[in-house]
From TrEMBL:
Transmembrane segments: 6-25, 46-69, 84-103, 124-149, 155-174, 186-203, 236-255, 276-302, 340-366, 387-407, 419-437, 444-462, 474-498, 529-547
Assigned GO CC terms: plasma membrane
Membrane topology type: Multi-pass membrane protein
Stated family: Belongs to the sodium:solute symporter (SSF) (TC 2.A.21) family.
Gene Ontology molecular-function annotations: D-glucose:sodium symporter activity
PANTHER family per record: SODIUM_GLUCOSE COTRANSPORTER 4, SOLUTE CARRIER FAMILY 5
UniProt keyword list: Membrane, Transmembrane, Transmembrane helix
Keyword Transmembrane helix: yes
Main location: membrane
Keyword Transmembrane helix applies: yes
The name this protein goes by in its record: Solute:Na+ symporter, SSS family
């Protein structure tokens, strides 16, 4: 069990974050209460370091620490593709999407869709974005956090989740985006520090890289060190599935999801927004080494009897198996000395609270600007903030109600990506064609969002009701690609059936050529967005070559 000093450290950290969040959100009380722009977009004052750290913190939650370690134990570095491939989509965000978002002055991404297409597209994306934020960003994070806290403290999972929900909701609902971003920046540092600590102790226990590779060879598991798997790999994540399927998930998640992009929308200017996105791309290199690799270290320690996983054993139809969801928790308790355990728990709570805070602020923004104000355009800023706070509170309660259903997934990380694979394709399609194709019409986007989402839900339902069907045999990454192809055909076909009729505004919201966005000068020196993009691309190519 966790020691008293570790409990004290954990409680002190939670109180510290709540205090900082409340202080950050209320220090400009008069402006915050009267300005919805300040509440939802931090007054558009955010600079690149804070944007990059906030993007990372919103993306990485307790779910990632727990489930990426689990995936490292089960399949090695493979799921690290979800982290490294993000660098490529963050480059797309910086180069091609941020310029339109910043220049058009939008508050939300549904607002952008209305300017590029029509109001129906805005309504649909707002609805889907709120639902996805509740399920993907909040409920799954709660689930991972509840499992960890129950294992460490012996507290009932739902009790611990309700407490964390109340504390996170308190400063997020009161403070707005400024409170979220300030606390996320702190939490990013704590989370990375905690991950480095567990990585160091696990590595120290393994001893050397030669010992690790020897153990893997003895257990016919050398493929655990490979990020690129052959076609037909039993994991369903062959190199083809990753390079075709991930961009569909990644472009939606990093370029078209309000919860993530809202940090860039609060930027001081376009250069800060671009640099912040690319800074996050560099940070995304770390998770493979500090989140996934420790799980692989745990596998090696388990095979050499250097760590006791007997508490994870469970009886099943095929004999005794390991419930590897608790790998990260056992690593913390068995590898770390007293005091450091509390810091690691603080890191886990950092990931949990930052993801939930970001999602709640996104939901508040969408509910106020894209739903409530649409039908009551004369609503005051004070009323909009009130509506946003109420929406965030309701979202918290809905996410708590979904926990028993989502807990049925064996792997939480696969569960969250399985859901995304069926949500993302129509949204990714509509944004890509909208930004890069002049002829993408409003009606085509509207029908693609409707029919594409319906198709995704139908495929998901068929898969869950009967996984033995042909559809059920398709890996979720390839399914995302197939659904995307179907949506592309829909929108292209509908665009010719219902030709585009550009407004003065929509005629400015697509690139005339692929090279047009690269003609913007940007900052001079190494901070230039083109220089940073090229450097990031080079590093990623080298990493993939090393771990091919």
């Amino acid at each position: 069990m966790i020691s008293t000093i570790d409990i004290v450290i954990t409680i002190a950290y939670v109180l510290f974050i709540v205090t900082i969040g409340l202080w950050s959100g209320r220090r400009k009380k008069e402006k915050t209460e009267s300005s919805s722009n300040d509440y939802f977009l931090a007054g558009k004052t955010l600079k690149w370091p804070m944007i990059g750290l906030a993007l990372f913190a919103t993306n990485i939650s307790c779910l990632h620490l727990v489930s990426l370690a689990q995936s490292g134990f089960d399949s090695g570095l493979l799921n690290g593709n979800f982290e490294w491939m993000a660098a490529f989509t963050l480059i797309l965000l910086a180069l091609f999407f941020i310029p339109f978002y910043i220049r058009s002055g939008v508050t939300t991404l549904p607002d952008f869709l209305e300017r590029r297409y029509n109001k129906a597209c805005r309504d649909w994306l707002a609805f889907v974005s709120i639902i996805s934020a509740i399920i993907i960003h909040i409920a799954f994070s709660f689930l991972a956090g509840g499992i960890v806290l129950e294992t460490l403290f012996g507290i009932n999972m739902y009790t611990s989740i309700v407490i964390i929900a109340a504390l996170t909701g308190l400063y997020t609902i009161i403070g707005g985006l400024r409170a979220v971003v300030v606390t996320e920046s702190i939490q990013s540092v704590v989370l990375i520090a905690g991950a480095l600590i567990i990585t160091y102790f696990a590595w120290n226990k393994v001893g050397s890289w030669d010992h690790l590779t020897t153990v893997l060879q003895n257990n016919q598991a050398t493929d655990k060190l490979s990020m690129i798997r052959p076609v037909g790999d039993k994991s369903g994540l062959s190199w083809v599935a990753v390079f075709l399927g991930y961009p569909i998930l990644g472009i939606w998640y990093w370029c078209a999801d309000q919860t993530i992009v809202q940090r860039a929308l609060g930027a001081k200017d376009e250069n800060h927004a671009k640099a912040g996105a690319l800074f996050c791309g560099f940070i995304k290199i770390l998770p493979v080494f500090i989140f996934v690799l420790p799980g692989l270290f745990a596998y090696v320690l388990y095979k050499t009897n250097a760590i006791d996983l007997s508490s994870l054993q469970q009886a099943g139809a095929n004999g005794t198996t390991l419930n590897t969801k608790g790998i990260y928790t056992l690593m913390i308790t068995q590898l770390l000395p007293k005091g450091l355990v509390g810091i690691l728990v603080a890191a886990l709570l950092s990931g949990l609270m930052s993801q939930i805070a970001g999602a709640l602020n996104s939901i508040a923004t969408l509910s106020s600007f894209d739903l409530y104000k649409r039908y009551r355009p004369d609503t005051s800023d004070v009323k909009l903030v009130t509506v946003g706070r109420l929406s965030a509170a309701i979202a918290l309660m809905v996410s708590l109600a979904l926990l028993p259903l989502l807990n049925q997934y064996t792997s939480l990380f696969e569960g969250i990506n399985d859901v995304i694979a069926h949500i993302a394709p129509p949204i990714t399609c509509v944004f890509l064609l909208g930004v890069f194709w002049k002829k993408a019409s409003a009606k085509s986007a509207q029908y693609t969002l409707w029919l594409g989402s319906l198709l995704g839900v139908a495929v998901f339902a068929i898969n869950k009701l009967n996984s033995e069907t042909l559809i059920g045999q398709i890996p979720f990454m390839m399914m995302a690609f197939y659904l995307f192809c179907a949506c592309m055909l829909m929108q292209i076909g509908f665009s010719y059936l219902y030709p585009v009729q550009h407004t003065a505004e929509s005629n400015k919201l697509y690139w005339k050529s692929f090279w047009e966005p690269l003609q913007v000068k940007g900052w001079s020196g190494i901070g230039n967005y083109k220089t940073l993009s090229a450097l990031l691309l080079g590093i990623m190519a080298l990493l993939y070559w090393t771990f091919r």
